[in-house]
Structure formats: structure tokens, C-alpha cells
Specification:
Distance between the termini of chain A: 36 Å
Structural class of chain A: mainly beta
Shape of chain A: globular
Strand content of chain A: over 45%
Largest interface: A-B, 28 and 22 residues
Order of helices and strands of chain A: EEEEEEEEE
Mean pLDDT of chain A: 97
Number of helices of chain A: 0
Largest sheet of chain B: 7 strands, mixed
Oligomer: heterodimer
Largest sheet of chain A: 6 strands, mixed
Shape of chain B: globular
Helix content of chain B: under 10%
Low-confidence stretches of chain B: none
Order of helices and strands of chain B: EEEEEEEEEEE
Mean pLDDT of chain B: 97
């Protein structure tokens, strides 16, 4: 099986920097993406191919990758960033098999 | 504007069947890999299955293999998920999602999502 592991929760004060990690054996071989989901809403893509940011996503969102861990960094966190964040990637031996991390609840204190 | 609209969800008894549909508009369905992703109530996202642009390749998560079938009708701009032998643990909001890479390629992530259709498996 293939899994991605995220911390269940991260808390940060407004204006601070939040870092959400995602770990998995497939990550050295597969790109990761990140999604933001607010209550009652559909997920939106905020980072793809480890570090790329879609148009319209604020610059305070960034992604990085190192070995078996990818990290979503939110600089200067705002109250509106409170949401669930999911990493997503693929099986190390079959790129067509998708997998999501368990999700991280970001709380802005 | 890209739009994905799911339908077909509902209440079904364990062991029963449902067919979900996802109608696409605002883009050419035939150019994109498409996926189904589900979310159980209060839980995280779970990738379920995907299908290549021409339907020639399909992949599934282990727990639905042999029970679910993903398919597409590009002429009708519609993606399907046939779900058989449903279990209580299949209860979830089912989203269809688009891979952004068109023209025969595969990106492996999702740039557009529908609003989802709720499947409840219960006696």
C-alpha cells in the first residue's frame, strides 16, 4: 500500500508562518500537490508539482520538497486561511494510482 | 468556464448498486484524464479511480477494485462510476475531478472539481 502522512492539526497566530508536512515513500519519485478545503466547500488546488502555484493563489502559499517529505508553507497567515489542507501524490511504482494524505486542520488563533 | 456536475447519489442498502454521473461543460472532456474522489462525512479526501481520455486505461483504489467501474462517454461529455456490492464504508460525498493536462497527457493532480453527490449505504 502507499500512504501519505500529515499532522492532524497545526495552529498558528495571524501573521505567523505555518508549515504543514506530508511524508511518504513515493515522494522522492512522484510530484505532490496541495489542496485547501474550507467547511462546506469543494477542494481547490494551491500547489502542484511540489512547488508550482496556480494563477490566483496568493504568493504567501509555497511548497517545497526534500526526500520523503513535502512541505506547504503559508507565510503571514491570515484568518481566511483557516481550513483543511490535503497533500496528494501517487504510488511510487504506478503514477496513475492516486493517494491523498489524511489532511491537516489549520487553526488561526 | 469549466463546470462539473455530479448526480446519481442517494440512499442504498448494503450490497446494492448505484451509478453516478458527472456532466462536464466548458472544456473538451475527451482531452482529459478524469477521476472520482470521495470524502466520507467528517473525514478526508480519498482517491477512488481514474480513466484515460479514450477510456482505454482505468485504475482503482484497492478497496473498490472489482466492485466499481469508471467509464466515460465523451460524446455525451459524461463521466460515470458504476458502484456494485456497496458497503457501509462506501458512504461518502463523491466528487468528479479533472486532470488539467489535455491532449493525451497526464498530470496526476486535479484543477477542477464538481460539488459532489452524496452516497449513503445503510439498511
Amino acid at each position: 500500500s502507499y500512504e501519505l502522512t500529515q499532522p492532524p492539526s497545526v495552529s498558528v497566530s495571524p501573521g505567523q508562518t505555518a508549515k504543514i508536512t506530508c511524508s511518504g515513500d513515493s515522494l522522492p519519485k512522484q510530484y505532490a500537490s496541495w489542496y485547501q478545503q474550507k467547511p462546506g466547500q469543494t477542494p481547490i488546488i494551491i500547489i502542484y508539482k511540489d512547488t508550482e502555484r496556480p494563477s490566483g493563489i496568493p504568493e504567501r502559499f509555497s511548497g517545497s520538497s526534500s526526500g520523503t517529505t513535502v512541505t506547504l508553507t503559508i507565510s503571514g497567515v491570515q484568518a481566511e486561511d483557516e481550513a483543511d489542507y490535503y497533500c496528494q501524490s501517487a504510488d511510487s511504482s504506478n503514477s496513475f494510482l492516486g493517494v491523498f494524505g489524511g489532511g491537516t486542520k489549520l487553526t488561526v488563533l | 468556464e469549466v463546470q462539473l456536475v455530479e448526480s446519481g447519489g442517494g440512499l442504498v442498502q448494503p450490497g446494492g448498486s448505484l451509478r453516478l454521473s458527472c456532466i462536464a461543460s466548458g472544456f473538451s472532456l475527451s482531452s482529459h484524464w478524469m477521476s472520482w474522489v470521495r470524502q466520507a462525512p467528517g473525514k478526508g479526501l480519498e482517491w477512488v479511480a481514474n480513466v484515460k481520455q479514450d477510456g482505454s486505461e482505468r485504475y482503482y483504489m484497492d478497496s473498490v477494485k472489482g466492485r466499481f467501474t469508471i467509464s466515460r462517454d465523451n460524446a455525451k461529455n459524461t463521466l460515470y462510476l458504476q458502484m456494485n456490492r456497496l458497503r457501509a464504508e462506501d458512504t461518502a460525498l463523491y466528487y468528479c475531478a479533472r486532470d488539467p493536462c489535455g491532449d493525451g497527457c497526464f498530470s496526476g493532480y486535479f484543477d477542477s472539481w464538481g460539488q459532489g453527490t452524496l452516497v449513503t449505504v445503510s439498511s
